[in-house]
Amino acid sequence: MLIYNIGMSEAVLGRCLKFLALTLCLGLLQACTALEVKPWQRGTLSKPEMAGTPDSIEAKMRDHVFYSKEGSSGGASAGGGGCGCN
After folding, report:
1. Which residues, 6 or more positions from 50, have their beta carbon under 8 angstroms from its beta carbon?
2. pTM for the structure as a whole
3. What are the angstrom distances between the C-alpha of 17 and each of 1, 3, 24, 50?
4. What would the pLDDT profile of 7-55 be if each residue is shown by its tens digit?
5. 3-state helix, strand, coil in the chain (%, to 5)
6. CA dist 34 → 51, 52, 72 (Å)
7. How many whole angstroms separate alpha carbon 52 and alpha carbon 47?
């Protein structure tokens, strides 16, 4: 095995893997703490061009076509069946 070719014992390898796993977990947790929106940033984020779907009418039309084709209802508070004749 590669472990024995480089001369590392299993104990040293185990400690190295634990250290790497701990470092990875702490790094991922630290990345989640930077998601706070400051009060002075809220004005920029509330602009229409920052919206996930900038054109709400187009998004509603896409949802209508999707639910009509799928034969489902309820996901976007749409009523009716799959035929599209609400």
Report:
1. 44
2. 0.32
3. 17, 13, 10, 42
4. 667 788 888 889 999 999 988 888 776 677 888 888 888 887 777 776 7
5. 65, 0, 35
6. 20, 20, 38
7. 11
